[in-house]
Amino acid sequence: xxxxxxxxxxxxxxxxxxxxxxxxxxxxxxxxxxxxxxxxxxxxxxxxxxxxxxxxxxxxxxxxxxxxxxxxxxxxxxxxxxxxxxxxxxxxxxxxxxxxxxxxxxxxxxxxxxxxxxxxxxxxxxxxxxxxxxxxxxxxxxxxxxxxxxxxxxxxxxxxxxxxxxxxxxxxxxxxxxxxxxxxxxxxxxxxxxxxxxxxxxxxxxxxxxxxxxxxxxxxxxxxxxxxxxxxxxxxxxxxxxxxxxxxxxxxxxxxxxxxxxxxxxxxxxxxxxxxxxxxxxxxxxxxxxxxxxxxxxxxxx
Length: 302
Ligand SMILES: NC(=O)c1ccc[n+]([C@@H]2O[C@H](COP(=O)([O-])OP(=O)(O)OC[C@H]3O[C@@H](n4cnc5c(N)ncnc54)[C@H](OP(=O)(O)O)[C@@H]3O)[C@@H](O)[C@H]2O)c1
Known about the structure:
This protein is 44% helix and 18% strand. It has 13 helices and twelve strands. The model has no long low-confidence stretch (mean pLDDT 97).
């Protein structure tokens, strides 16, 4: 198949490119940076350099494709520390670009990277962007088949806590405890998307993705053990304090408030209601595997 991938060589894009090339597909990878060309070619794919915010570029790149993998990138829209950016409006614009480019290029098969929380426009914080993107994609004519892939939180998000893990011996969030929640590895997401890409599907379907179910305290214990700090804790602070910390650090206000609201829905479990009503088979990568990778990446960075 001739497949176009957005997401460059990001968390999902890189393993997804590898898998689809290995399976003999003709892969074009969209990146915004010309310096990515040789890495993309080294994986056996073709590079298309341009922006997912550029409709003409998308239309031209999608032309003649059998399928497209569509995602939106937060950092590609702008700095998460820029208070002037309306991230929701920008996500909607990219989704509208996708709709127009798909229609004008004649693509009939879409796999879209959405998110847990996209089932509702209430109480999911910044994941609201994914609800709206799904609604916009669903305006495509019925003969365009769309698979909406909804991963839960990525294990790789835990790298964002590296600083406090090293300086304070803690992962600091506004929820925690012993309630298990689903987590996913980008490798399992890539493997699932590669499999789905090769299936024929019709209409609009939703597919949740998760790798393991573990609690915040289990995560702290596993990461602590892997990095030789058995006292590593998952520390819970009030949502208002987390918000204050993010705002003082200059995080975009809408994103900061959205993060706190999202964590509230993780803590009370409401974020996962639709996930558990449509629970997928768990992937292969478990917390212990990620803990090993986490420790290795710290060792490599020293
Ligand atoms: N983290 C989570 O827990 C989680 C959970 C559920 C859903 N999600 C969703 O997953 C998505 C992120 O996926 P990911 O982690 O695979 O992405 P990622 O690692 O952030 O990579 C995305 C890549 O897209 C490219 N890009 C950025 N802006 C672009 C633009 N304007 N035009 C063309 N390419 C651009 C960048 O590569 P170049 O520098 O090469 O352009 C970037 O590395 C987001 O939509 C997020 O909301 C995340």
